[in-house]
Amino acid sequence: MSQAIDYVMGHTDRERRRLSLQASVINPLTDNFLRRAGISAGMHVLELGCGVGEVTLIAARLIGPHGTLTSLDVDPAAIEIAQARIHSAGHRNVHFEVVNVTDFKPARPQDAVIGRHILIHTPNAPEILKAAVSLVRSGGVIAFQEFDFHTVPRGYPDMPLYFFAMDLICEFFRRALVRPNIGIQLPFLMQEVGLTPPEVRSECCVDGGPHSTFYEWIAETVRSLLPRMEALGITTAAEVEIDTLEERLRQEALDTRGFAVVPPMIGAFSRKP
Q1: What are the pLDDT digits (tens) for 48-68?
Q2: Each residue of 84-140: pLDDT tens digit?
Q3: Which of 49, 60, 186, 229 could cross-link 268 (Cys pair, CB 3.0–4.6 Å)?
C-alpha cells in the first residue's frame, strides 16, 4: 500500500488462500463494521490494501450500482484474483490499481477511505492515516480494522497445542512489527492526524467443531510465517510439524470439546472535520 509497508506474510498463492480462509471467519465483523461506519449506497469509496478482494466484495455490495469503489494494492496477482471475483459477482463500478497509497491521486475527493489489516504492516501508521485523510472530502469517513496481538484471549478448557500455535503467531508479530497492538492504538492515532474522536469496537472470533475453518486458518498462518519465525529463533520446522498441524489442532479441539479464540480485531471510524 505504501512504500513504508512490508507485508510480512508474503505474496504467494498459498498466502492468498490463507487470506480467503481468514476472511471466511472475520468478514461478518467487517460487514457490520462498515455498515456502522456509514458505508452505504451511492458513496465514492477508496479501499487501501484490497488483497484478493474480500473487503472489496463487502464494500461493493454496500455502495450498490450507483456508487464507485477504487481498490489499491501492491500485489498484481492478488488484484487479478480480486478483479475476477468482482466481475463474477456482477459489480461493474469497481476500479483496481496496483499502486502505493502515497502515490495515488484520485480524480475527486472520496466519501470514505477504508482498510483492514493495513496499518499493522507499516512502521509509520500515521503517514498512511494522514494520506487517507487527505483523500476524503470534509465530512468523509475514515474507517480501519486492525488486530491487537498484545492481547491473546484463552479459550476453555485448556488446549495446549492451540495455545502453542497462537503464542507463536503473536510472538512473531510482537517481534517483527512496529505496532503489533495497532488495533488498540487506532483511537489515539486517528485523533493525532486531526480526526474527531472515533467510534471504536473490539470483537473476538470464537469457533470450533469438526468442520471449523479455524484449524486450517491457524495452521496456514504458522506456515506462512515459519521461515521468518525460524530466522528470529522463535521455533523450528521440526517443533511445529507443520504438515500435520491442522489435523492435530482439529483433533485437540474435538477431544477437549474446546473452542478456539483469536486475538481481538478492533474497528475505529471517524469523520474528517
Answers
A1: 999 889 999 999 999 999 999
A2: 999 999 999 999 999 988 788 888 999 999 999 999 988 889 999 999 999 999 999
A3: 186
What is d(CA 43, CA 227) in angstroms, rounded to the nearest whole number? 42
Separation between Cα atoms, residue 145 and residue 269, nearest integer Å: 9
Cα-Cα-Cα-Cα torsion 221, 19, 185, 259, nearest 10 degrees, comes to -60
Residue 121 is predicted with a pLDDT of: 87
Which position has the grid cell 503473536?
170
Residue 227 burial class via C-beta count within 10 angstroms: exposed 0-12, middle 13-18, buried 19 and up = exposed
Number of Cα atoms under 13 Å in the Cβ half of residue 155: 25
Count other Cβ atoms within 10 Å, centred on residue 247: 12
To 5 degrees, how large is the angle CA 145–CA 147–CA 151? 140
Pairing of strands 199-203, 260-261: unpaired
Give all domains of the chain, ordered by start, each with its CATH number: 13-271 (3.40.50.150)
Place of cell 506462512: 224
Other C-beta atoms lying within 10 Å of the C-beta of residue 95: 12
DSSP 199-213: EEEEE--EE-STT-S
Residues in the chain: 273
Q: Are 51 and 78 in contact (CB under 8 A)?
A: yes
Q: Confidence class of residue 19 from pLDDT cuts 50, 70 and 90?
A: confident
Q: Which residues pair with 145 in a beta bridge?
A: 116, 267
Within a 13 Å sphere around the CA of 243, how many CA atoms are in the beta-carbon half?
Answer: 1
